[in-house]
Amino acid sequence: MKKTFFISLLLLSALPMLGCQTAPVSRNRTFLAQDIAASAGFTREYIKAGDFTLLTYRRFEKRSDIIDIYIEGDGRPAAHDPTPLDPLALRLAVLDPADNVAYIARPGQYPLSSILECDPKYWSTYRFAPEVIDSINKAIDLEKQVAHARHVKIIGYSGGGAIAVLAASKRDDVMSIRTVASPLKSSLLGSLDPKDAAMDIAQIPQRHFVGSRDRVVPQSIVWSFVQQEGEETANRVTIVKGVSHTDGWVERWKYLLSLSPS
Predict the structure, then answer these.
(1) Residue at 139 is within a domain
(2) pLDDT tens track for 136-163
(3) Which residue range forms the structural domain that includes residue 31?
């Protein structure tokens, strides 16, 4: 009995060495996302995309050449479970009137079981790592295939906006990029810097929304990114009055979505 108990302890202690750790996701957060999605007719699917298994929600109403792709924010990067307390990108996605809309969660968010399938570094310093960008792009390819679409419009909230930029820099099918409260510059160890991709996507129509009350992402970061793209891109930044990093976006999203990228 003692020997069996000792072996069990050894197996449990080895889990972090395998890039996984026991961190059960809060049921309430999973149920919240499901309620938000289901209320707007979105269906759920977990997909294997590169190195990661990602949660997706989609609403495809009819065959179209274009699909709107929403990428979730960083969630809780300092926690054992990075699942967001409130999935803002999903809330924005369900308000999108486009015929075909898909939502992609980030690595580690909404895990299928209490054993996380990826190393915690992928929601910490490696959150914008090349393998993360590759995974998101594979997920986008799959959503395109299901929707029979040829082009994508990518929308990212917070860190999801940084991923939107980096993913778009590797693609030739992106019609537009919208970022919401997004840190478009990164010095995280193991991550790519979105600012380095600015010139690669300069010809893609864009709009970058910044909350006037955002204390997480300074306006200067977004302005610096846009300036990197060229002198005639200042109109790509929209300052949204009275909005913080998390509050006010849902109420304004339908109007903000009507503003064309440039």
Answers:
(1) yes
(2) 999 999 999 999 999 999 999 999 999 9
(3) 21-257
The structural domain count of the chain equals 1
**Residue of 252, 135, 131, 236 whose CA lies nearest to 182:** 236
Contact 67, 147 (CB under 8 A): yes
CB of 55 within 8 A of CB of 87?
no
The answer to whether position 129 is within a domain reads yes
- CATH number of the domain encompassing residue 43: 3.40.50.1820
Q: What distance in Å separates the CA atoms of residue 5 and residue 75, rounded to the nearest whole number?
A: 36
Whether 46 contacts 56, CB under 8 Å: yes
Taking only the tens place, the pLDDT of each residue in 182-225 is 999 999 999 999 999 999 999 999 999 999 999 999 999 999 99
The pTM assigned to this predicted structure is: 0.90
Q: How far is CA 132 from its chain centroid?
A: 10
